[in-house]
Inverse folding.
């Protein structure tokens, strides 16, 4: 399966800031970076808190940590893709979505909506994380209707 | 020299652009840039030797030195101006600053490329981009901008915007393009609302006739100080207002409590860039005689028009459907066919809005031929970057509005 996977895998330019996120995904768990100074949960992982009233310059593991979230949220928006990205030809049409998570002031993740017919999609519908073990090394966090 | 602002300090005195066509067999990107540069320099009544600074617009900016060498320009320096799709107006801001503060007398700014050498889309992104880690695995990087497709769906959801409203705008830009020999759709004939709605879905809710076709070509312009503009052969076009905004990764932002960013996906950074440009100019939306707005998709133009103050937030669809935006209309928008029917200029990290600037200058000079807008003295030019991450606005005028 690993050799056959035709789509782009995550290519972290620096694996350190997001290592825990991808490791949790392999355990089928969702974790989010959280600043221990101001308490803000944010997405995507980075080495500095993005809250403009904070300015923690700490590295993840010091003033920035991780917190488990439920993986539940609502569909903020979506698009049905008929003109696929490279590697996604056999999936076309597929659904790219923005999901607002329950926690963290509703931060948004971009992902795929799966197990959902196009005619059943509704902005605002409840969704939950769905873990796709695409290779032995990588698990992608996707979403499906609750 | 004004002490507090760039208002009226700089003028565009020369333009040069090539037809926007789907491919340029046998032409290199540098060659196309050189051709447009020659046209712009001659249009300004100058020789190469007069140019003392080069601004290389778009993703090729880091190669500004190579372009300068290729063109055989003497003079002082070459720099890049890169801010995605908004780069041409950032290039205009840089060029205006250089002439206003005496660092250069005549600045040439160039953007262009063919579509036959490298850079074919779809492609994987290169370089410093979090998209490689968090977006590409989900099939996000396609020819079209999925963030804007999602904004469109969200706009429909929040405000009741319809595909028919967007189609009405597409019909008007095609009407305009039929009078612009440089537009890629110049000879493709008129379209109807039904044609747009019947065209295939590309990335829902975008129909193919709501997506600007990719083209090659090149645009160049020469900027001088306002003082020097009077000696130029054409009616000077003054830079009256400028604004730019780069709020960043808009789709991910839903951070209540971060006051300076509104987390709605339907809000474009034009809300900031247009405000700044209007403040510098001392004009507001209702003063404009015509507009050149980034219209990669009609929904982008609609949301940008809302944020620039032409209608209330959420009413962009109804506004476009009710407004005659043709060159004969009550509020002419994208009189050259825009990107939607003119073509989306796609070279390295496409600064695709460059033709909007060319058309603004032609209209303000009164040189737009059959599609000339009557009494065109004030024009807002607005450009947007991919994924709603950035926006730039310029207000250009004549001696009447200076």
């Amino acid at each position: 399966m690993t050799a056959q996977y035709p789509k782009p895998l995550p290519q972290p330019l620096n694996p350190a800031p997001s290592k825990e996120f991808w490791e949790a995904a392999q355990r089928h768990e969702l974790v989010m970076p959280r600043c221990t100074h101001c308490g803000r949960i944010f997405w995507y992982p980075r080495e500095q808190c993005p809250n403009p009233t904070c300015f923690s310059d700490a590295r993840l593991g010091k003033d920035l940590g991780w917190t488990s979230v439920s993986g539940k949220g609502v569909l903020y928006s979506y698009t049905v893709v008929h003109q696929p990205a490279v590697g996604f030809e056999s999936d076309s049409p597929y659904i790219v979505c923005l999901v607002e998570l329950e926690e963290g002031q509703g931060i948004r993740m971009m992902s795929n909506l799966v197990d959902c017919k196009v005619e059943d999609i509704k902005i605002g519908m409840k969704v939950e994380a769905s873990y796709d073990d695409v290779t032995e090394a990588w698990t992608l966090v996707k979403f499906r209707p609750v | 020299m004004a002490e507090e602002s760039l208002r009226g300090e700089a003028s565009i005195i020369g333009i040069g652009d090539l037809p926007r066509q789907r491919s340029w067999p046998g032409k290199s990107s540098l060659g196309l840039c050189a051709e447009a540069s020659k046209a712009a320099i001659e249009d300004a009544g100058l020789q190469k030797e007069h140019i003392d600074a080069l601004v290389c617009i778009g993703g090729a900016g880091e190669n500004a030195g190579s372009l300068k060498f290729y063109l055989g320009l003497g003079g002082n320096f070459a720099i890049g101006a890169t801010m995605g799709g908004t780069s041409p107006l950032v290039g205009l801001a840089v060029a205006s600053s250089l002439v206003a503060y005496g660092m250069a007398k005549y600045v040439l700014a160039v953007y262009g490329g063919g579509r036959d050498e490298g850079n074919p889309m779809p492609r994987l992104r290169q370089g410093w981009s979090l998209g490689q880690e968090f977006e590409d695995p989900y099939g996000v990087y396609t020819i079209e901008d999925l963030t804007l497709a999602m904004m469109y769906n969200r706009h429909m959801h929040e405000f009741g915007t319809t595909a028919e409203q967007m189609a009405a705008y597409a019909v008007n830009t095609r009407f305009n393009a039929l009078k612009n020999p440089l537009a890629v759709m110049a000879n493709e004939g008129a379209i109807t609302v039904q044609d747009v709605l019947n065209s295939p879905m590309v990335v829902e809710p975008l129909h193919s006739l709501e997506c600007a076709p990719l083209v090659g070509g090149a645009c160049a312009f020469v900027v001088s100080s306002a003082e020097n503009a009077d000696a130029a052969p054409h009616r000077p076009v003054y830079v009256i207002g400028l604004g730019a905004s780069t709020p960043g990764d808009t789709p991910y932002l839903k951070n209540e409590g971060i006051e300076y960013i509104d987390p709605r996906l339907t809000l474009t950074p034009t809300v900031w860039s247009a405000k700044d440009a209007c403040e510098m100019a001392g004009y507001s939306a209702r003063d404009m005689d015509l507009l050149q707005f980034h219209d990669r998709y009609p929904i982008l133009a609609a949301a940008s028009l809302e944020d620039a103050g032409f209608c209330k937030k959420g009413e962009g669809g109804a506004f476009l459907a009710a407004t005659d935006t043709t060159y004969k209309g009550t509020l002419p928008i994208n009189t050259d066919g825009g990107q939607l029917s003119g073509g989306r200029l796609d070279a390295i990290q496409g600064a695709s809005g460059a033709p909007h600037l060319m058309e603004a200058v032609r209209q303000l000079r009164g040189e737009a031929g059959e599609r000339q807008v009557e009494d065109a003295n004030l024009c807002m030019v607005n450009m947007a970057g991919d994924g709603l991450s950035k926006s730039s606005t310029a207000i250009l005028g004549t001696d009447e509005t200076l």
Remarks:
- DSSP finds 13 helices and 13 strands in chain B.
- Residues 29-43 of chain B form the longest helix (15 residues).
- The radius of gyration of chain B is 20 Å.
- Chain B touches chain A at residues 122-124, 128-130, 132-144, 146, 149-154, 157, 200-206, 249, 251-258, 260, 265 (CB under 8 Å).
